[in-house]
Amino acid sequence: xxxxxxxxxxxxxxxxxxxxxxxxxxxxxxxxxxxxxxxxxxxxxxxxxxxxxxxxxxxxxxxxxxxxxxxxxxxxxxxxxxxxxxxxxxxxxxxxxxxxxxxxxxxxxxxxxxxxxxxxxxxxxxxxxxxxxxxxxxxxxxxxxxxxxxxxxxxxxxxxxxxxxxxxxxxxxxxxxxxxxxxxxxxxxxxxxxxxxxxxxxxxxxxxxxxxxxxx
Length: 216
Ligand code: PRP
Ligand code: URA
Description:
Blueprint: E1 12-14, H1 18-28, H2 34-52, E2 58-64, E3 69-75, E4 79-85, H3 89-98, E5 103-104, E6 107-111, E7 118-123, E8 133-137, E9 140-141, H4 145-157, E10 161-165, E11 168-169, H5 171-180, E12 186-188, E13 190-191, E14 194-195, E15 201-202, H6 208-213
Parallel strand pairs: 1-12, 4-5, 4-6, 4-8, 8-10, 9-11, 10-12, 11-13
Antiparallel strand pairs: 2-3, 6-7, 14-15
Helix pairs in contact: 1-2, 2-3
The protein binds 1-O-pyrophosphono-5-O-phosphono-alpha-D-ribofuranose and uracil (URA).
Residues 87, 140, 142, 200-201, 204, 207-209 line the site of uracil (URA).
C-alpha cells in the first residue's frame, strides 16, 4: 500500500518523491488535525507543482548581477490557477508562492451525493481565456466527474493547455478523465486502490474539504 501502484497511462504522473510520500502519509492519518492537514496540503501542492511545471516554456530575460550582465529566463506564458471549490482552495497559496504573477480563476462544484455527478454553483471566469496555461487544482480525483466538468468549462473558455494537479487519484477517476480529456496531463501524489460504494477513494484520506475546513 505504501508505494505508488502502476497504471500504465502516459498522461498520468504519480510522484515518487520521498518527501511527497512522507507528507501524504501524515495527510492520510485520521488523527491529523485541520491546521496540520492544511499545511500538508500546501506543502504537497508545492512539490507536485514543481514537477508539473517542469516543461513550461521560458523566454530570455537579461539582468545585471553586481558583477556582470546575465542572460536568464522568465516564464513565457501567462499561467492561470483554477482551484475547484472547496477543497482546491488549499492548494492556491502554494501555487501563488511559486508563480506570484499567476491569475486565479475559481470554479465551484460539489458532487450530488446520490448520483455522484458534479453540480456547478460558481464560475468566475471572464468571457474568454486570459492565460495560456491552466493548472486545475483539486486534491481528489474520485469518479473524475468534477475534473472532467472543470476542464470542459476551461476548454469552452478557450484554454489550450491544461494540466490537472491533484493529491490522490482513484483508477476509476484517472480512466474517466483520460478518456474524456486525452490532452490533459494528470499530476498526483498517489494512485489509490479503488472507490467505495459512496464514491470515496480507498484508502484515500476521507473528505478533503471537510478535513481542511474542520466541517466533518
Ligand atoms: C470533492 C473534491 C473534488 C470531487 C472529486 O469535492 O474536492 O472536487 O469531490 O470527486 P469526483 O472525482 O467524483 O467528481 P466535493 O464534492 O466533496 O466538494 P467540496 O470540495 O465542496 O467538499
Ligand atoms: N472527495 C473527497 O474529498 N474524498 C474522496 O475520497 C472522494 C471525493
